[in-house]
Amino acid sequence: MRSMLLVLVLTFAALTGPLQAADEADSIAALDLAMRTARSIPERAQLLVDHAWPLDVTRDDEVVRFARKELIQYGEHGMDAMARRIREVAKEQTSEILVTMIAARQNTEATPSGYIVGLDAALWFGNVEAKRYAIEQIGLGRVSGQMLAIVDAALEHPELTETAVRTLARLKNERARFYLNDLLRGDDSEVRDLAAEGLAAIGGEALSLLREAMGDPSVEVREASARAVLQIASVADLSTLHDYYGGFPDDDPDLREMVRERALLLEKLLEAHETGSDAVPTPN
Question: What is the pLDDT of residues 196-238, one digit of tens each?
Fold first, then answer.
């Protein structure tokens, strides 16, 4: 009896395996035919998106893989359709779409408008990973206009804070100074230094907040601010450096020594500039 059952199981597997493979091949062939008969490239791209991330429950994994691979080759021509689909699928699929868009971006010369729309859609409608990918790509491409969406995403998902801060520093948007200043003065010691460095990188009014924070009652805030200012300190920071060095004798001695040395160097630079000397001192 057992041998008969085994024979039946093996026979069924042998029959259904090739049939399933044939069905998958037929499905891909049908999609390929539909694309060939489509009237325009956007229509073909929409066909691929419909099969890569179907909105109904029916899903053929082989067809899905085929469609996503084709979309990568389509480059900019599939961006608009993929960006729209981010708003339509379940959240857990949004990161899959963004990964495909990032891969397709490698096959374009300039940044397609549909790609930017997709990043924005991921920030508002994506899952955590989609938001993370979007924030990273915005920073790498220095895409402007998404500053508020980045901050909102980080506030909603604190695990995105570090990624958000690094991107905001790259974008150099002065409006980000309020968020970064809150992080600098907040309770999360892991992002405090990063927030201070972000304010220094942005400069302008953001740097003014950082200089002000060098006199903060909190030693952690003061020291993080001083370390960040030292990275970009100029003659304009001389008074701030002197005030910090003279005002907080109990702060980290190594940090205070670096502040003192930088102030001395800047004073020599200022003196050389005012006297017209060619002897410009260099940092140790």
Answer: 999 999 999 999 999 999 999 999 999 999 999 999 999 999 9
CA gap 269, 274 in Å, rounded: 9
Overall residue count recorded for the chain in this entry: 284
Which positions ≥6 away from 231 have C-beta within 8 Å?
197, 200
Angstrom distance (rounded) from CA 93 to CA 86? 8
For the beta carbon of residue 59, count every other beta carbon within 10 angstroms: 10
CA–CA gap between residue 196 and residue 218 (Å, rounded) = 14
> How many helices and strands (H and E) does the chain possess?
15, 0
pTM score, whole prediction: 0.81
pLDDT number for residue 126: 97
Q: List the alpha helices (DSSP H) in 75-160.
A: 79-86, 91-105, 113-125, 128-141, 147-156
CB 221 within 8 A of CB 185: yes
Q: What is the DSSP letter of 282?
A: -
What are 183-189's contacts with CB under 8 Å, separation 24+?
184/209, 184/210, 184/213, 184/221, 184/224, 184/225, 185/213, 185/216, 185/218, 185/221, 188/161, 189/220
Distance in angstroms (rounded) separating the CA atoms of residues 168 and 149: 11
Residue range 86-102: mean pLDDT, rounded = 96
